[in-house]
């Protein structure tokens, strides 16, 4: 006998076992979602069948209309969900219901292990088929892949792997094609046998499924319980906010509320319907490299693909549907990439999405703020990648600034200081760290606003030397800054006694420091940035900002060049250098090491640094005593 005909027990992949353990012992109260997940799988299976039948019409030659049927059986205590979609063969049952392929599920699991309240997270994340173990203590899945003779049954109680065996003769005859899922409900989940419960859940979560969903009571004929229309094809005027919200949840497979809805029909050279949503919360896998887009491509109501790159990568959080009237149905997945009609659609729809963001940011800043907080770091990738829309994306961007608020560049430019001609920013790892960065001192003393940029992508797009409203963006950790024409704020205590402080002899001091530091730095110069701190490190005027260099170096994509050490000529430590020949070398090294620490780096030799610091402190102490 071959493995193709024998019954077998197989263990679950470790992640599945972990997920199932969670489902079986779930204390998550909104168990209703299991039905939505099963219906959504059934609908995907019907979509796939319809797609495959374009090339192989035999698959649907029986003429059976596509449907999902829900059949409660109170005597047996079972709820059965049946679809006549594509079905699964033996290997597919093993692969699909024994392992986890989705990148998102893995990040979900790692989140769960970190979070104390795992149950709450279930609701934010579709856990698919496995969620049925919240309500069932045993599940059997019997399936026939469309067009194949053999029928297989998968069954599991969740804990201890699953069994896979050829279906009984009777089961095989009953299932012409597709999948039948029998849930043996837990005692506390028996409410799901009530027709009104099933209808309530379907109308709440699954009304938008394009295919008929039927309820088959024990004692009656099946009847359709959803509207089964493609919502995006209906006129806007007929639809209520509630309809959209529901469509978002069922089409987008989401649990939150949409922060933005875009529904329109394009007519002209090409006709297509668009229904897109922006979520209001971040999914777990937003930054996973394998994450695909979530916009589904339909052609005349037939699902074609969900990975057709219908929007650029920086809009990968948008979910929804684009349904074309003109594309050929037999468009193969390979052909999707370069299809000129699709390229046009992509361009037009991208423009519409950005336009919608623009108007939302004006009309409903609160909702736009939600989108920005969740997806700003992704949208900003577009400033770097999408040359054509750079200006628009910059204008949409919101930045935390030294003002303490999130501000747009338009707001920034409207409140420039007299004689200020540049937009200043500083890139770093965290707002807190940036706020205490000495490179801000002089700007703060002048009341100049500075953008504090902390997303990894910020180091990249800022390197493109952009400007906004005719004002260049300028890093405070790169090149020269000249605040000379911008007055100090008078009532600043630090500024009042500033002129009283002694100024070190610039030429001698710099020569001594240069001599002490040798090739550890590329240059030493007097700083315009500092008021209270003694020193800071900056990058040269051309080339990359220090933060970008560091990021690239971490990925082995470039070397870190030698920085410039800037020193504050009014600082007592700096003033001491020219006078105290004995300590000049140690003091110079200390200026460099301090600046490194303030930039979040380690001194080259931390032990030597500690030693040096101790020596200097001890010297100071002994002087005080003596
Ligand atoms: P997801 O649906 O998000 O991929 P699931 O765990 O719900 O995750 O399902 C895993 C896979 O099992 C699906 O991707 C699909 O290939 C397969 N599958 C699940 N239910 C069905 C079904 N009713 N018919 C055909 N295939 C199914």
Give a structural overview:
37% of the residues lie in helices and 19% in strands. The protein has a 9-stranded mixed beta sheet, covered by helices on one side. A 5-stranded mixed beta sheet has the order 10-11-14-12-13, with helices on both faces. It folds into 3 domains: 8-224, Histidine kinase-like ATPase, C-terminal domain (Heat Shock Protein 90, 2-Layer Sandwich), CATH 3.30.565.10; 231-372, 2-Layer Sandwich (Ribosomal Protein S5, domain 2); 407-625, Up-down Bundle (Four Helix Bundle (Hemerythrin (Met), subunit A)), CATH 1.20.120. It has 23 helices and 23 strands. Helix 19 crosses helix 21 (572-579). The longest helix has 24 residues, at 340-363. The structure holds adenosine-5'-diphosphate (ADP). Adenosine-5'-diphosphate binds next to helix 2.
Short synopsis of the structure:
The chain has 626 residues and is α+β, with helices and mostly antiparallel strands.
Task: Break the fold down into its secondary structure elements and pairings.
Blueprint: E1 8-10, H1 14-24, H2 33-55, E2 67-73, E3 78-83, H3 90-96, H4 103-114, H5 118-124, E4 136-144, E5 152-156, E6 162-166, H6 169-174, E7 178-185, H7 195-206, E8 212-215, E9 223-224, H8 241-251, E10 258-266, E11 272-279, E12 294-299, E13 302-305, E14 319-324, H9 333-336, H10 340-363, H11 365-379, H12 381-385, H13 390-396, E15 398-400, E16 406-408, H14 409-414, E17 423-427, H15 431-435, H16 441-445, E18 450-453, H17 458-461, E19 467-468, E20 471-475, H18 493-496, H19 506-517, E21 523-526, E22 535-538, H20 546-554, E23 564-567, H21 572-579, H22 584-598, H23 606-625
Parallel strand pairs: 2-8, 12-14, 17-18, 17-20, 21-23
Antiparallel strand pairs: 1-6, 2-3, 3-7, 4-5, 4-7, 5-6, 8-9, 10-11, 11-14, 12-13, 15-16, 19-20, 22-23
Helix pairs in contact: 2-7, 10-11, 19-21, 19-22, 21-22, 22-23
Bound molecules: adenosine-5'-diphosphate.
The site of adenosine-5'-diphosphate has 16 residues, from helix 2.
């Amino acid at each position: 006998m071959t493995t193709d005909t024998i019954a077998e027990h197989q263990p679950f992949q470790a992640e599945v076992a972990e997920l199932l353990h969670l489902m079986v012992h779930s204390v998550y109260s909104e168990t209703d979602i299991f039905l939505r997940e099963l219906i959504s799988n059934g609908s995907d299976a019907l979509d796939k069948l319809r797609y495959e039948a374009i090339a192989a019409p035999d698959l649907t030659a029986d003429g059976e209309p596509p449907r999902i049927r829900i059949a409660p059986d109170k005597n047996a205590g079972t709820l059965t969900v049946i679809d006549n979609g594509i079905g699964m063969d033996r290997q597919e049952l093993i692969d699909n219901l024994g392992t986890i392929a989705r990148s998102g599920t893995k990040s979900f699991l790692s989140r769960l292990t970190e979070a104390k309240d795992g149950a709450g997270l279930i609701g934010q994340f579709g856990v698919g088929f496995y969620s049925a173990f919240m309500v069932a203590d045993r599940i059997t899945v019997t399936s026939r892949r469309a067009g194949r003779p053999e029928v297989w049954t998968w069954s599991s109680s969740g804990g201890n792997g699953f069994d896979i065996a050829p279906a009984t003769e009777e089961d095989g005859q009953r299932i012409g094609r597709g999948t039948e899922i029998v849930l043996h409900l837990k005692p506390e989940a028996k409410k799901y046998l009530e027709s009104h419960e099933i209808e309530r859940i379907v109308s709440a979560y699954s009304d938008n499924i394009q295919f008929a969903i039927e309820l088959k009571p024990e004692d009656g004929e099946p009847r359709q319980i959803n509207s089964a229309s493609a919502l995006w094809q209906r006129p806007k005027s007929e639809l209520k906010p509630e309809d959209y919200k529901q469509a978002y949840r069922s089409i987008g497979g989401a649990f939150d509320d949409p922060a933005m809805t875009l529904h329109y029909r394009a007519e002209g050279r090409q006709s297509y319907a668009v229904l897109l949503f922006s979520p209001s919360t971040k999914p777990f896998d937003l930054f996973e490299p394998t994450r695909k887009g979530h916009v589904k491509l339909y052609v005349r109501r037939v699902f074609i693909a969900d990975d057709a790159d219908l929007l650029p990568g920086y809009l990968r959080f948008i979910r929804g549907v684009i349904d074309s009237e003109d594309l050929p149905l037999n468009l193969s997945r390979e052909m999707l990439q370069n299809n000129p009609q699709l390229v046009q659609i992509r361009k037009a729809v991208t423009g519409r999405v950005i336009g919608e963001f623009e108007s939302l940011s004006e009309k409903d800043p609160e909702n736009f703020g939600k989108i920005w907080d969740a997806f700003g770091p992704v949208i900003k990738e577009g400033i770097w990648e999408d040359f054509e829309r750079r200006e628009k994306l910059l204008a949409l961007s919101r930045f935390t600034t030294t003002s303490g608020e999130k501000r747009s560049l338009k707001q920034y430019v409207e409140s420039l200081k007299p004689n200020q001609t540049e937009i200043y920013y500083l890139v770093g790892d965290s707002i807190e760290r940036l706020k205490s960065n000495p490179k801000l001192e002089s700007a703060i003393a002048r009341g100049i606003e500075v953008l504090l940029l902390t997303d990894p992508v910020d180091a990249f797009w800022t390197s493109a030397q952009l400007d906004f409203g005719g004002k260049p963006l300028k890093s405070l950790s790169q090149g020269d800054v000249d605040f000379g024409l911008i007055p100090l704020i008078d009532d600043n205590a630090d500024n009042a006694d500033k002129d009283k402080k002694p100024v070190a002899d610039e030429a001698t001091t710099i020569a001594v420091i240069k001599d002490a530091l040798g090739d550890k730095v590329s240059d030493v110069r007097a700083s315009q940035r500092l008021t209270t701190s003694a020193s800071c490190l900056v990058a040269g005027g051309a080339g990359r900002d220090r933060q970008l260099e560091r990021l690239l170096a971490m990925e082995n994509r470039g070397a870190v060049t030698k920085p410039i050490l800037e020193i504050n000529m009014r600082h007592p430590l700096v003033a001491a250098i020219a006078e105290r020949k004995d300590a000049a070398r140690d003091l110079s090294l200390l200026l460099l090491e301090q600046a490194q620490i303030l930039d979040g780096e380690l001194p080259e030799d931390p032990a030597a640094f500690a030693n040096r610091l101790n020596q200097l402190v001890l010297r100071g102490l002994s002087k005080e005593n003596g």
